[in-house]
């Protein structure tokens, strides 16, 4: 199952196009040391030795800036009820084929206890977007009940008011992940109903920073209509917003959504339509590598979507510069109902099985797992 050479394994720079080589060397000197055009030039590497050199350079920066141990976050998919209708998402409000569920507080607490017992050190609670006092209190209650476990808690519960973010922070959440999805407002408008606002999403990211969270954002790569210029701009946006954590992954069509046709053209994917899984995966890996080279000391997750495209997708994410993995610890009875895209992996695998499998996979690439640690973003610590 192990390919002859995984990207980044050697940790050495290989011979490559001299102009790109110069950009790689410049990027490695310090964060944000290259221009948006140079970011785009690195993103446009789509194969051969240059690609291997890109991954190797990103891996070398990762090793220096955040180390080679992988932080684990137990992922709880707490519910698929969503008030929104993002055109790409399998659990969007209008998808009538989805069996809706909301985990009880006891069920979420049980997941947190499992994560603590397994030494995961941190937890992500993610769900569809729900606003309102009852939901705000529900999350406060859960946070209060898991506080004594000492986990680093990340929330990913969508757009909320600043007051709600502040209440959840006071109740014990330390980090918040809210992907901007794309930094291009026009593209955002084509991927969402008119009622969804890119400006509000940016304002939410600012509110999260004011509330003192470690702030995470990210995008999908390979969206219909998305160009490499958009993706280069996304990476510069992460720097402008001064993100502490990046959670991004390849876009994967879901057949029950308006963007479910796999042949919809994405200029960022240079291959013929429909793009292959490997094309989508490689674009996701290039985004990880160039983001690492641009930002250096942030946490970057190897998203589950990478594993949906290739069995070893997450390991390849780690070797391209990611340093966080989010094993799914949701009860298997809910997993089929939280399918954002086609081909979600580990639908029937209990959390304990995931742990054993991941341990083996991570050891195979020569990295270790930071058991029992919060795995805070070094960028956040450095800013403090
Ligand atoms: N509802 C919250 C929100 O949107 O911020 C959090 C949960 S939402 C399901 C988490 C992420 O899933 C989104 O930010 C989006 O980037 C990603 N996602 C949704 N549909 C996807 C698809 N078809 N392919 C890849 N990622 C997808
Ligand atoms: Fe809801 Fe998030 Fe999916 Fe949008 S991406 S439909 S907000 S769950």
Structural class determined from secondary elements: alpha/beta
* Main beta-sheet strand count, sense and barrel state: 8 strands, parallel
The count of strands amounts to 11
- How many helical elements? 15
Please give the radius of gyration in angstroms: 19 Å
Distance between the termini: 43 Å
Query: Which ligands are bound?
Result: S-adenosylmethionine, iron/sulfur cluster
Order of helices and strands: HHHEEHEHEHEHHEEHEHEHHEHHEH
Report helical residue fraction: 40-55%
Q: Taking all residues together, what is the mean pLDDT?
A: 93
Low-confidence stretches: 1-14
Proportion of strand residues = 5-15%
Principal-axis shape equals globular
Describe this structure in words.
It is built from 15 helices and eleven strands. The strands form two sheets. Strands 2, 3, 4, 5, 6, 7, 8 and 9 form an eight-stranded parallel sheet that branches. A three-stranded parallel sheet has the order 10-1-11, covered by helices on one side. Helix 5 (133-146) links the parallel strand 3 and strand 4. It is of the alpha/beta class and 384 residues long. Residues 88-89, 126, 128-129, 156, 158, 178-179, 181, 220, 249, 251-252, 254, 305, 340-341 line the site of S-adenosylmethionine.
Keywords:
42% helix; three-stranded parallel beta sheet; single chain; binds S-adenosylmethionine; alpha/beta; 11% strand; 384 residues; eight-stranded parallel beta sheet; binds iron/sulfur cluster
How would you summarize what this structure contains?
This protein has 384 residues and is an alpha/beta fold. It contains 15 helices and eleven strands.
């Amino acid at each position: 199952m192990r390919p002859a050479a995984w990207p980044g394994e050697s940790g050495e720079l290989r011979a490559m196009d001299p102009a790109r080589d110069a950009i790689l060397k410049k990027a490695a000197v310090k964060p944000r040391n290259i221009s948006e055009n140079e970011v785009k030039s690195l993103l446009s590497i789509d194969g051969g030795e240059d690609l291997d050199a890109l991954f190797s350079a990103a891996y070398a920066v990762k090793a220096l800036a955040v180390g080679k141990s992988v932080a684990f976050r137990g992922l709880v998919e707490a519910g698929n009820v969503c008030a929104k209708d993002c055109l790409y998402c399998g659990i969007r409000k209008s998808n009538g084929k989805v069996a809706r569920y909301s985990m009880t507080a006891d069920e979420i607490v049980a997941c947190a206890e499992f994560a603590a017992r397994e030494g995961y050190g941190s937890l992500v609670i993610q769900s569809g977007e729900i606003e309102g006092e009852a939901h705000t209190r529900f999350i406060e209650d859960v946070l209060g009940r898991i506080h004594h476990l000492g986990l680093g808690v990340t929330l990913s519960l969508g757009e909320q008011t600043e007051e709600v973010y502040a209440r959840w922070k006071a109740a014990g959440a330390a980090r918040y992940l809210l992907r901007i999805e794309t930094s291009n407002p026009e593209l955002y408008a084509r991927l969402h109903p008119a009622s969804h606002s890119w400006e509000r999403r940016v304002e939410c990211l600012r509110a999260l920073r004011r509330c003192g969270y470690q702030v995470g954002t990210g995008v999908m790569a390979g969206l219909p209509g998305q160009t490499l210029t958009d993706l280069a701009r996304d990476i510069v946006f992460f720097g402008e917003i001064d993100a502490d954590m990046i959670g991004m992954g390849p876009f994967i069509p879901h057949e029950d959504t308006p963007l479910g046709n796999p042949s919809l053209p994405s200029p960022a994917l240079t291959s013929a339509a429909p793009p292959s899984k490997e094309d989508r995966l490689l674009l996701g890996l290039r985004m990880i590598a160039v983001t690492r080279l641009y930002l250096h000391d942030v946490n970057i997750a190897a998203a589950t979507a990478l594993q949906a495209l290739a069995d070893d997708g997450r390991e390849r994410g780690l070797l391209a510069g990611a340093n966080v993995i989010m094993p799914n610890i949701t009860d298997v009875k809910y997993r089929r109902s939280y399918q954002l895209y086609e081909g979600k992996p580990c639908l029937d695998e209990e959390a304990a099985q995931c742990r054993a499998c991941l341990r083996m996979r991570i050891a195979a690439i020569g990295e270790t797992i930071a058991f029992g640690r919060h795995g805070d973003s070094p960028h956040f610590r450095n800013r403090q």
